[in-house]
């Protein structure tokens, strides 16, 4: 497997390289940059013995496309404190509900 290569997918140029970490030089990771996002470098997965250019390309494109989809998705709602009390129409929380208008008419007849 080569230490670096480039490829184009969907109009984006990916530059990939196989690099070791400073603290664990025996462990190699696939790093890449994308022409549409030149300020960020990504290292999504470790190198494997079975890696070849074709399967690394597929993994990198899948990772990047999934990341873009996650960024575009609406944020997940998060719990931010105590639950608000549920208000019943026509009265404060915990009050008994008012009788329906039809029930009042029948009672007076």
List the helices and strands and how they pair.
Blueprint: E1 4-9, E2 12-20, E3 28-34, E4 37-46, H1 53-72, H2 101-108
Antiparallel strand pairs: 1-2, 2-3, 3-4
Note down, in words, how this protein is organized.
This protein is α+β, with helices and mostly antiparallel strands and 109 residues long. It has helices spanning 53-72, 101-108, and strands at 4-9, 12-20, 28-34, 37-46. It has a domain at 4-72. The chain is elongated and about 80 Å long. It has a four-stranded antiparallel beta sheet with strand order 1-2-3-4, with helices on one face.
On the 0 to 100 scale, the average pLDDT is: 83
Query: Looking at the structure, what is the overall shape?
Result: elongated
> Helicity level, as a percent range?
25-40%
Q: What is the strand arrangement across the widest sheet?
A: 1-2-3-4
Radius of gyration, in Å, reads 29 Å
Number of strands: 4
Oligomer: single chain
Please summarize the sheet with the most strands. Answer: 4 strands, antiparallel
List SSEs in N-to-C order: EEEEHH
- Our count of helices gives 2
Stretches with pLDDT under 50, minimum 5 residues: none
Note the beta-strand portion: 25-35%
- Structural class, please? alpha+beta
What gap, in angstroms, lies between the N and C termini? Answer: 91 Å
């Amino acid at each position: 497997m080569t230490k670096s290569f480039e490829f184009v997918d969907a109009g984006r140029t990916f530059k990939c390289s196989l690099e070791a970490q400073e603290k664990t030089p025996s462990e190699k990771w696939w790093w890449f940059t994308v022409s549409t996002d030149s300020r960020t470098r990504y290292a999504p997965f470790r190198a494997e013995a079975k890696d070849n250019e074709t399967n690394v390309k597929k993994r990198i494109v899948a990772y990047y496309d999934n990341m873009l989809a996650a960024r575009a998705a609406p944020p997940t709602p998060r719990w931010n404190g105590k639950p608000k009390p549920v208000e019943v129409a026509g009265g404060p929380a915990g009050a008994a509900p008012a009788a329906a208008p039809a029930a009042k008419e029948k009672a007076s007849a």
